[in-house]
Amino acid sequence: MLKIENLKKHYDNFFLECSLQVNPGQVTGLIGQNGSGKSTTFKAILDLIHPDGGSITLFGKDNQDITPEDKEKLGVVLSDSGFSGYLRIKDIIPILENMYRQFDSSFFIKQVQRFSLPMDKQIKDFSTGMKAKLKVLVAISHNAQLLILDEPTAGLDVIARDELLDMLREFLEEDDERSILISSHISSDLESLCDDLYMIHDGKIILHEDTDILLSNYALLKVDNKQYEALDKSYILRVKKESYGYSCLTNERQYYLENYPNITIEAGSIDELITMMIRGK
Ligand SMILES: Nc1ncnc2c1ncn2[C@@H]1O[C@H](COP(=O)(O)OP(=O)(O)OP(=O)(O)O)[C@@H](O)[C@H]1O
């Protein structure tokens, strides 16, 4: 569906160098801190910036060669995208009908009602959550095959995030081949939705793993200085000094459970795993 190979982009002292892949039927998450390169990657996929190197293949073609028909198969949410604030939902329906041959206005209107979005209010007067829901709704209302969603849940409360994630789950249920590339700061969003996760830090992918494996095989070992000395470090990915000794990130939880019954082994949330990947040595 989407393949990025050795994408390079240089801005002042920022160097993006990343590869990633979204397979048909899969939801792939991109997690990273502010300024790690998520939006730059998304803009490169959509040919909104000119990369310094690498290749991006969308629907089996170089992204420079995709046709207007291919573009209709994309549903996009970018942080700075959206309609003019002076328009109302009832104004954008005819625009969308003109833009997308497969725009499903009855589905769109039903969802607008379901999420209590006002038809008659100017978008500039919408709340953050209402604007975010509208953006996602537009992306899912024209039978797209691939959604490219840059921080679609940014600024939303827990309930609004949940409603938005439900919208995406329903979109996926309609067709096995539909795929999503989604970025978020909030790893719990990605944990519940994504099949696999990429972590990006300072322009580089520092980890790529199936979500299930991250949750089942990764763990944090909490050891004192003596236990640390005695520990087999073969499967330790990162180590961080703590007041009690060390915390160690492993991707072989079972090995340490079986061989070190006396040490504290915690499953760790995805946030903790990310923190270890970034701040551990
Ligand atoms: N047009 C530009 N000119 C100069 N530097 C840029 C430009 N666009 C992005 N950058 C820089 O590239 C780096 C990555 O930015 P990017 O927006 O991709 O990060 P991000 O991971 O999306 O961050 P956030 O979560 O804050 O949106 C930052 O250091 C940013 O300042």
From TrEMBL:
Q: Record keywords: Amino-acid biosynthesis included?
A: no
* Matches recorded under InterPro entries: AAA+_ATPase, ABC_transporter-like_ATP-bd, ABC_Transporter_VariousFunc, P-loop_NTPase
Molecular function (GO) terms for this protein are: ATP binding; ATP hydrolysis activity
CDD domains recorded? ABC_DR_subfamily_A
What's the domain of life for this entry? Bacteria
> Protein name, please?
ABC transporter ATP-binding protein
PROSITE patterns assigned to the protein according to its UniProt record, in alphabetical order: ABC_TRANSPORTER_2
Alphabetically ordered keywords of this record? ATP-binding, Nucleotide-binding, Transport
Q: Where is the ABC transporter domain?
A: 2-227
A Pfam family reported for this protein in Swiss-Prot or TrEMBL: ABC_tran
